[in-house]
Amino acid sequence: MRKDLIAGNWKMHSTHLDAIQMVQKLSYRLDPADYERVDVVVCPPFTALRSAQTVIESDHLQIDLGAQHCFYEEKGAYTGEVSPQMLSKLSVSYVIAGHSERRQIFGESDDDVNKKVKAILSEDMIPIMCCGETDEEKEQGLTEERVGSQVRLGLQGLTADQVAGIVIAYEPIWAIGTGKTASADDAGDMCTFVRNTVAEQFGEAADSVRILYGGSVKAGNIAGLMAKRDIDGALVGGAALDPDSFASIVRYWL
Ligand code: PGA
User: Which member of 99, 101, 108, 133 is catalytic?
Assistant: First the structure.
């Protein structure tokens, strides 16, 4: 069955020194039983990955390391970019692809996201591919059309085996960083819609894909979200910056 996954997206927060403390504090608040039930992932900025990796390895922590972004080429004249291989050599296991902030602020297209997903898989890392509608799209009743096309285009050309191992995060853009969470029912329905969209193209692989909800997730709303059949975890922004609140989200069943 699908193992739950709670991933913290730190965005552009924390120096490498902060990251060491944040990972250590988080680890003090979690027990072996937590890691058995949930895959716990932290996604610090690039500059903090090496420090986070060092703490995780030297303290033998079961926290997995994720990156927030990468370019899809292996190497070359791409000033400022970071390749999937550079990340995998830092023991990064997950890479977020197509977060709405990357799409909206940095102009990433569905095609870019698709290339990234393939590049991440080629380095044996797990993509966390994001999708989600804007406020206007929601108002115009275009949510399913938008999310459906992001999922289809993002997964184009993948094999069913590859798809089975990936993670998709449904993050309505109007809920990110706004304090407005989708209701557990709406979030659950959209995650079911995402799974059905994957199933149309890849059949049974859709049963193995882990689907996360993201958008103002906190300790107070995680349990309702996790009760939904097609929600396998959460991608957490703001509440992941405080190890106490992130740990309470990881331990939502208590
Ligand atoms: P938020 O961010 O939890 O602060 O809304 C979620 C995300 O952007 O992944």
Answer: 99
